[in-house]
Design goal:
A hairpin with a 2-residue loop joins strand 8 and strand 9. The strands form 7 sheets. Strands 3, 5, 6, 8, 9, 10, 11, 12, 26, 27 and 28 form an 11-stranded mixed sheet that branches. Strands 13-25-15-21-18-19 form a 6-stranded antiparallel sheet. The protein has 8 helices and 30 strands. 34% of the residues are buried. The longest helix is centred in the last third of the chain and has 19 residues, at 459-477. 15% of the residues lie in helices and 30% in strands. The termini are far apart. The chain is α+β, with helices and mostly antiparallel strands and 602 residues long.
Length: 602
């Protein structure tokens, strides 16, 4: 909104208000503002404060965007794109991108979205969403990276091994690390934290994870198309944490006790939040009680929160002035509101409650104090023989006596359900709920998975769970995107004789998942480290993944892996093995025995 001034005869200049919002963005609301006018004919400025336009409306509310929508983001090329967010119900929303506006409005729940047509690669571009401006946007290929610690390895650990990292200067590849959010009580619509997109310039590359960096660099070097790496990983995690509850129905022990979750969640929902603290809220049907006193003494049988309200007349000497409210001591946690405004809160039993009431809060005539008192053990108390009063400079108002009250939430009777949840030592879907589900609308070219160490010893289940994860993610994205992964590396000392191996069984489970379409596997049993479960050579891993992507995501008929066993036959006392992916042929790599090494007969 701009304010200009025009000459008004010989009188004071008259303001002209120009609203530069588009018709789709304007909204008629009551808002608060102050106009500051200067007399143009006098040396000394004359201030005119227009503070009378004060109301309880929310004003022209800004739209809220998902955290992924921000500066330096990368959008997937050549596919329809969803841009979404939240606003007041009915709020008009305009998205502008590459010279084209897209219009929508928030629905009754406050959600909105627009669909952008397929975009050609390039950038940087500007995106505008109403008054918000997102800068340095690229369009290219986006890869979703999931898994545990080897996917999580920060690039700063590898700068000595790979000296090119600290002088990286590639602004056309980007990285976003989804903050950890592990929740088993249902899916989340938004990711946690305040992460941002980072480019691979020297000043930002240390914010990257290492595997994502080397993969993105290789894809850029091959195609010169912008690359975005969306990394949702967490060290020390099982595959079942990354799969939805819907897909885990074949694994009953991994399912959340939904009834217990629902009961506990319902018990935590405070009916008074955002409502019962308002100055003019109608509490005529509330019960009455005396303050101070304990819940037990007053017959309040609640484990949760109780709201108290008291309306009183204010002495004229206190109107509009600063005051203090003394609320004695309470058990356990309190929030105190004066005329709807939060003036103080304490989360535990003990300290005296003394809160400032800012000037302007207290008004002529009727005023209100609202107290929310929370005691999860049921022993709520407003301690006697303590001050309960509002004190001004000249007068005071006693708060002892009769108050209205009503229970906000009550957990009595849900202990059984709390205990049932406590007994669930191992359930799945926590990381899917908090880190994968919220980003399901972000289009990707493909996914990269590096996980399995935590599931070693449970390879039989992994044979079902790994395909379940791939199908699960593809279903929630709405299309079968390419999915490539890293097979577990070699780790610990080499055994001279064949023996049972949890890691070998896990590798076999990974290998057998190649039956799914549009899948690929990077084998790295030659570049691991015997004494480090986190091998540092992530560069070759990235190159091998990129070679797989060449075949799976870009449909190039190239050699994308090492030899893969195909068949065997017995002939004259010998075993003849056949392999695919042999390129121009096979040859034995040198070793101390001087012959082909590394096979065992079972």
């Amino acid at each position: 909104m701009d304010i200009l001034f025009e000459k008004n005869g010989g009188h004071e200049p008259r303001p002209i208000v120009l609203d530069r919002r588009t018709e789709g963005q304007k909204k008629v609301t009551t808002t608060k503002f102050v106009l500051l006018l200067f007399c143009l004919k006098k040396v000394s400025p004359v201030f005119l404060f227009l503070a009378g336009l004060v109301g309880g409306g929310e004003g022209w509310a800004a739209v809220r965007l998902p955290k992924l929508v921000g500066d330096r983001m990368v959008l997937q090329r050549e596919t329809e794109l969803k841009i979404w967010g939240w606003a007041d119900p009915g709020e008009k929303v305009t998205v502008r991108f590459r010279g084209t506006p897209y219009y929508t409005e928030a629905d009754g729940t406050g959600k909105w979205h627009v669909m952008l047509p397929p975009q050609q690669p390039g950038g940087p571009f500007l995106m505008e969403v109403n008054e918000k401006v997102i800068r340095d946007v690229l369009v290219g290929d986006v890869y979703l990276c999931g898994g545990q610690s080897n996917q999580e390895t920060p690039i700063e650990r590898l700068v000595e091994k790979f000296p090119e990292i600290p002088v990286s200067n590639n602004h056309m590849i980007r990285h976003y690390k989804v903050p950890s959010q592990d929740v088993t009580d249902g899916v989340r619509e938004e990711i946690a934290g305040d992460a941002v997109w980072h480019s691979a310039t020297a000043s930002e590359v240390m914010n990257w994870t290492s595997l994502a960096y080397f993969f993105a660099t290789e894809v850029w070097n091959r195609y010169h198309v912008p690359v975005g790496m969306l990394v949702a990983s967490k060290g020390g995690t099982d595959i079942e944490s990354w799969i939805s509850q819907e897909r885990l129905k074949d694994f009953p022990r991994l399912l959340v006790d939904e009834e217990a979750v629902r009961k506990v969640k319902e018990s935590r929902q405070d009916k008074g939040s955002g409502r019962w603290n308002q100055k003019d809220f109608d509490d005529s049907d509330w019960a009455e009680t005396e303050v101070p006193g304990t819940w037990d003494e007053r017959g309040i049988r609640t484990k949760g929160s109780v709201w108290y309200r008291k309306t009183f007349d204010l002495p004229s000497s206190m109107v509009g002035r600063h005051a203090r409210i003394y609320m004695g001591r309470m058990a356990d946690g309190d929030s105190v509101f004066v005329n709807g405004r939060l003036v103080g809160t304490t989360s535990y039993f003990g300290p005296p409650r003394k809160y400032d009431i800012p000037a302007g809060v207290l008004v002529q005539g009727k005023n209100n104090v609202t107290l929310k008192l929370t005691a999860m053990n049921g022993h709520g108390e407003i301690v006697p023989d303590k001050p309960y009063v509002i004190r001004g400079d000249e007068d005071s108002v006693s708060l002892c006596g009769t108050w209205k009250y009503k229970t906000g939430f009550d957990r009595t009777g849900v202990e059984e359900y709390v205990e049932r949840l406590r007994q669930q030592k191992m359930v799945g879907s926590g990381l899917y709920n908090g880190m994968i589900y919220p980003i399901r609308d972000w289009k990707v070219r493909g996914a990269i998975w590096y996980q399995g160490e935590n599931n070693a010893g449970r390879a039989f289940a992994y044979k079902k769970q790994f395909p379940a994860l791939i199908n699960d993610w593809r279903k929630h994205w709405g299309y079968d995107f390419p999915f490539i992964w890293v097979q577990l590396a070699n780790f610990m000392a080499v055994d001279e004789q064949p023996k049972e191996s949890d890691w070998a069984e896990l590798r076999e489970a990974q290998n057998q998942t190649l039956y799914l379409p549009l899948t690929g596997q990077a084998v790295i049993t030659d570049i691991g480290e015997a004494n480090d479960i986190h091998p540092k050579n992530k560069k070759d891993v990235g190159l091998r993944l990129a070679a797989n992507a060449l075949n799976v995501a870009y449909e190039r008929d190239t050699l994308s892996s090492g030899p893969v066993y195909q068949s065997m036959k017995l002939e004259n006392g010998r075993i003849l093995l056949s392999f695919s992916n042999i390129g121009k042929g096979l040859k034995a790599k040198g070793n101390k025995y001087g012959y082909l090494y590394g096979f065992a007969i079972a």
